[in-house]
Write a structure and sequence with these properties.
With 138 residues, the protein is α+β, with helices and mostly antiparallel strands. The chain has one domain. The protein has a 5-stranded mixed β-sheet with strand order 4-3-2-1-5. The longest helix has 12 residues. The protein is elongated and about 75 Å long.
Length: 138
């Protein structure tokens, strides 16, 4: 499983990429197609035409790293929210692992976080809430 810090962004290149490309050619695609800096430390995902192979390129301070994935069955599905033409789009780091596993995230919904639930339930000023008091058996 990949463990990425929240500061890392994940970009997906639109369109098919030739999986014979290597480090320097993929870095050039990051500049030309995705319009980002390949040495930024962010991850860049490229998928082939059949959508059964993917490569993830990133820079780790000492050089490029390349992760390659081939699905034996199914296809890689990265949901493009912008539904645009050329270039690339961004997905969250938590979406990268399911995408590489071949899980289609188009119908998925994100659960509300603890902070979102806590602020939604916070009572207004001056409103008293009922406290939970366990019943004592006598």
């Amino acid at each position: 499983m990949l463990s990425l810090p929240p500061s890392v962004r994940v970009f997906v290149a639109r369109g098919a990429t030739d999986m014979r490309k290597s480090f320097d050619t993929l870095a050039a695609l990051v500049i030309d197609v995705v319009d980002e800096d390949p040495m930024s430390g962010h991850l860049f995902l490229f998928v082939n035409r059949c959508r059964n192979r993917a490569m993830v390129l990133w820079w780790d301070r000492s050089g490029y790293c390349l992760l390659a994935k081939r699905l034996e069955h199914g296809q890689l599905r990265a949901f493009d929210r912008a539904d645009g033409g050329a270039g690339g789009f961004e997905v969250t780091a938590s979406e990268l692992v399911p995408i590489l596993d071949g899980i289609d995230l188009r119908g998925a919904r994100r659960r509300r976080s603890h902070d979102e639930l806590h602020t939604a339930r916070k009572p207004a000023m001056g409103v008293h809430t009922r406290q939970f008091r366990p019943k004592l058996s006598t």
